[in-house]
Amino acid sequence: MNRFNLPDLGVGVGLRTRHYQYILEHQPPVDWFEIISENYLQTRGRPLHYLDRVAERYPIVMHGVGMSIGSTDALDRAYLSELKQLRERVHARWISDHLCWTGVAGKNTHDLLPLPYTEEALRHVIARVRQVQDVLGEPILLENPSTYLELSASTLTEWEFLHALATEADCGLLLDVNNVHVSAFNHGFDAQTYLDGIPWDRVVQLHVAGHTHCGTHIIDTHVGPVIEPVWELLGQAQRRSGASVLLEWDAEIPSFEETHAEALRAHAFIGAQT
């Protein structure tokens, strides 16, 4: 159990628009759904209509891409207020976002950009996480990114940065084991060393997904089935954390039945000992 006493929701699936109708008509036996928060902000139309109906039947978790926790721009208080209102509307179990920055000087790149892992950046992000948590009135979860370059200014490993951030800001972690695999391959570090450096009592949720192997590097595309080494990392991480598991599939999305069947493969690895 995590230190926040947040529940293990089981194995969930990302809620995607092409599956709305199937979910409402068939009410499949899914443990929970994760939404992309920004898809339901500043809208009163079809997305919220379907989300309200899904939230009547299933637990909902919010996952964002717009907090830009690592930026030097001021935090967007209006955006945080909208997140809080959406959480209350759908009774979301928790809110997460990414350890990254998405823009600066008021410009949004619409990408999840890496931070330098330095003491200065650590202090900056800790202060901003505390501000966000004060506004939302609850701990947030931050997700480890997938990265394709390393910044020469970094003096800490990613897992050291995450450990210090979660401990000092008193926030939770969303550990994406596919991102661990992707970044380990791209940068040549050991995924097991990464896992050994994680504060498991702060891991509330786990992500797993497919990716695209380009030979010299791997890209986190959230497409296709999950490969065996990533499932094995998922099994280790879940046994160490007791965290909720979520399958992401965001491109070339198949039928809901196929997506859910892929998510349910997690059970074979959660129960396996390695």
How does this model look, in words?
The protein is α/β, with parallel strands linked by helices. The chain has helices at 20-26, 46-55, 77-90, 119-136, 158-169, 177-187, 191-196, 228-241, 256-264, 266-270, and strands spanning 11-14, 33-36, 60-63, 95-98, 101-104, 107-113, 141-143, 172-176, 203-209, 212-213, 218-219, 244-248. It has one domain (11-270): TIM Barrel (Alpha-Beta Barrel). It has 10 helices and 12 strands. α2 (46-55) links the parallel β2 and β3.
List keywords for this structure.
10 helices; two-stranded antiparallel sheet; alpha/beta; 12 strands; 274 residues; TIM Barrel; single chain; eight-stranded parallel barrel
SSE arrangement:
Elements: E1 11-14, H1 20-26, E2 33-36, H2 46-55, E3 60-63, H3 77-90, E4 95-98, E5 101-104, E6 107-113, H4 119-136, E7 141-143, H5 158-169, E8 172-176, H6 177-187, H7 191-196, E9 203-209, E10 212-213, E11 218-219, H8 228-241, E12 244-248, H9 256-264, H10 266-270
Parallel strand pairs: 1-2, 1-12, 2-3, 3-4, 4-7, 7-8, 8-9, 9-12
Antiparallel strand pairs: 5-6, 10-11
Helix pairs in contact: 1-2, 4-5
Oligomerization category of the chains in this entry: single chain
Characterize the biggest β-sheet.
Answer: 8 strands, parallel, barrel
Gyration radius (Cα, Å) is: 18 Å
Q: Which term fits the overall shape?
A: globular
CATH topology: TIM Barrel
Biggest sheet strand order reads: 1-2-3-4-7-8-9-12
* Tally of strands: 12
Q: Helices and strands, in N-to-C order?
A: EHEHEHEEEHEHEHHEEEHEHH
Q: What is the level-2 CATH architecture name?
A: Alpha-Beta Barrel
Residue fraction in strands: 15-25%
What's the CATH H-level homologous superfamily? Divalent-metal-dependent TIM barrel enzymes
Helicity range of the residues? 25-40%
SSE-based structural type: alpha/beta
Total helix count?
10
Low-pLDDT segments: none
Overall tally of domains:
1
So what's the CATH class?
Alpha Beta
Q: Termini, distance in Å? A: 21 Å
